[in-house]
Amino acid sequence: MLLFTPMQNQAAAVSVAVFYPELGEPFRTVFEQIIQGLESEVHVQRYPLGDNFDSAALHRSFVEQNSTVIVALGQRGLKAARGLNAAVPVIAGAVLSLPDDSPASMGGFSLAPDPGLLLERLKSLAPGVRRVMTVYSPRSAWLTKQAQDAAKLQGLELIARPAGDLREGAQVYRDLLQLATGSNDAIWLPMDTGILDEAALLPLILEQAWSRNVVIFSSSLSHVPKGALFALYPDNLQLGRRLAAMAASRARGGSGDEPVFLPLRDVRTAVNLRTASHLGLDLDTRQHGFDLVFPAP
Fold it and tell me: What's the CA gap between 114 and 40, in Å, rounded?
């Protein structure tokens, strides 16, 4: 874990321009918390972006403020930063992945939790699981590759099938549901709405998994109250601090030894105790340190 102590004076001298979308709740709170985390570590100049933001006005304002690095949040923030063509480093956050044509120097943190943490949590909550199935798109393929390595470390078999759109995703998920046979199997739902129809397909997945005692776990918090066993979701304040540390490093000319764009490791855990009981899992909420419990006590 990064510690933010002796370097804070240097970090505070870094001027960070934060491009982020103006959205309604609950997304407004998410971005506000990320920015608060940034502001706790570095000087921040905020640039809220409406649906039809003025690129020329944004450029003028950015030049006047003389910021040394850009933190681009969400797809809208990333689009604005890429369109600016400014000669400063860009750090991306609150996106699933970077566009394929992104420069190699672009860094950041995905909103998707680290697959290794997900599989580690799965083993601690449902130790009987031996096989994990999932569906991935080109956007989430990089996470699936990491999941393959993590599965080996956890002694799990990972079956990962590709899909290009919602229609293909629906068919592949149905195929996996037929393959899943019981409590030794789990289905991982990545954070990828391009291949998972949450209105039509998600209820079907949860219903069939319930009837077959198949574990469903997710990278999306919203799936837990609907019946998934657990999900990992972002610690938004800590994500902001991570982005601030990376921004400060890039502003000083550093790049670090790690991969440039990283999955999220600052996460919280949500669990559905009704689902756990149905699966025969006796989970001690204090022992496992859950941050959110469904149904609400």
Answer: 24
Q: Which of 27-35's residues contact partners 24+ apart within 8 Å by CB, and which partners?
A: 30/94, 30/234, 30/236, 31/73, 31/74, 31/94, 33/236, 33/237, 33/240, 34/73, 34/93, 34/94, 34/236, 34/237, 34/239, 34/240, 34/243, 35/73, 35/240
Q: Please indicate, yes or no, if residue 1 is contained in any of the structural domains.
A: no
Give the span between the Cα atoms of 177 and 99, in whole angstroms: 31
Confidence at residue 213, expressed as pLDDT on a 0 to 100 scale? 95
Same domain assignment for residues 280 and 168: yes
The CATH number assigned to the domain holding 104 equals 3.40.50.2300
pTM of the predicted structure, to 2 decimals: 0.89
pLDDT of residue 260: 83
Residue located via tokens 């998920």 = 173
Tell me: do 158 and 278 sit in the same domain.
yes
Is the separation of the CB atoms in 250 and 86 below 8 Å? no
Domain hosting 101: range is 8-111+235-264
Spatial distance between the Cα atoms of 21 and 160, rounded to a whole number of angstroms: 33
Report yes or no: 270 and 231 within 8 Å, Cβ to Cβ. yes
Query: Does 156 map to a domain?
Result: yes
In a domain, 23, yes or no: yes
pLDDT, mean over the chain: 90
Q: pLDDT per residue over 61-93, tens digit each?
A: 998 888 899 999 999 999 999 888 778 889 999
Q: Give residues with Cβ within 8 angstroms of 211, minimum separation 6.
A: none
Give the distance, in angstroms, between the CA of residue 162 and the centroid of all CA atoms in the same chain.
Answer: 19
